[in-house]
Design a protein that fits this description.
72% helix, two-stranded antiparallel sheet, disordered N terminus, mainly alpha
Length: 322
């Protein structure tokens, strides 16, 4: 084993350990989470800057300020930890990267919707779904609850798992924390309403940019994983994604959603309601059959299969390049 390979193997081990840590403990509420601190910073700056004229430029300044602070604080923390002891640096990297990954959380949230459906408690299923989606859920029938859950898992596989891994592969803890900061900016101010339409423009566009490559690689990873998942219609998955992914209003969310729709042989998209307002989303996939509750479990499998393939390919490429 050469000197060049050793740091690369150690780095891949750090990424693997971060994934394992997330799978084991997720995001325990009793432990401090960096995203909470990032959110407080964004809230403070938004209240001070989101007023008067020039809100687009103020929003750009918000992005720049948050990104630079997060990057240099993370870099300094990791550097100081390594100076203290190599194991301290390794631990800090593992912890910080694990906080950007949500494999356990996303899977658990989907199963919390699935269990009451299987027990015949549709009211509870609606309540659980309302915690992970923005649409109105009070009157949704079972098939629409399933659709909402499947769409959420498919979409969040990117920003909750594979995109953080992508940026971690490129720049370790400092860069993946920058990614999470951008993602948090988008979720907090990147809304198309009167308050944030101008101020959040930069945050929304930047989030689209950093997810562009990961979203497409995630769809490909899910497709490759489908060969090892029983009952997958992988030919239809490829065809559906190529045909329908661009129909989604987001430049990125449609890729994983269309792939899951094609692999399952169902149709996603359609009519949603947000605070009583009707929203018509483009339909992805053909309704080859009716959606059933087991589609949630199958989507969780595609989520897991997707990130596993994504990680294996990332490690392989990193070892080849180094």
């Amino acid at each position: 084993m050469g000197m060049v390979q050793e740091p690369t193997i150690m780095f891949c081990t750090i990424l693997f350990a971060a994934i394992v840590l997330d799978l084991l403990i997720g995001d325990p509420r009793w432990f401090p989470h960096p995203v909470v601190l990032i959110g407080k910073l964004i809230t403070y700056l938004e209240k001070s800057w989101n007023r008067g004229k020039g809100r687009v430029w103020k929003g750009i300044c918000l992005c720049g300020t948050v990104i630079l602070l997060v990057f240099f604080l993370t870099l300094s923390l990791v550097y100081l930890a390594y100076q203290l002891h190599p194991f301290a640096g390794i631990f800090i990297q593992i912890y910080l990267i694990s906080t950007t990954i949500a494999i356990k959380g996303l899977s658990a949230a989907a199963k919390e919707v699935l269990v009451p459906i299987e027990n015949g408690n549709i009211t509870e299923a609606r309540d659980k779904l309302s915690m992970i989606v923005g649409r109105d859920t009070e009157h949704l029938p079972e098939n629409e609850i399933v659709r909402g859950t499947v769409e959420t898992v498919a979409e969040n596989t990117v920003d909750g798992i594979t995109a953080p891994l992508f940026w971690a592969f490129i720049g370790g803890a400092p860069l993946v924390m920058v990614y999470r900061a951008i993602n948090t900016l988008d979720s907090m101010v990147g809304h198309k309403n009167e308050r944030f339409n101008q101020f959040g423009w930069a945050s929304a566009r930047l989030d689209d940019l950093v997810n562009w490559i990961p979203a497409r690689l995630t769809a490909l990873s899910m497709w490759l994983a489908a060969y090892f998942i029983k009952g997958s219609n992988y030919r239809n998955g490829w065809k559906t994604t190529w045909r329908d992914a661009r129909k989604h209003p987001s430049p990125n969310s449609g890729w994983s959603e269309a792939m899951v729709a094609g692999l399952l042989g169902i149709q996603l998209g359609g009519i949603n309601y947000y605070q009583g307002r009707k929203s018509v989303r483009a339909q992805m996939g053909a309704p080859l059959r009716k959606m059933v509750s087991s589609d949630i479990e199958k989507t969780i499998r595609y989520m897991h299969g997707g990130w596993i393939v994504f990680f294996i390919c990332g490690v392989s490429l990193l070892l080849l390049v180094k």
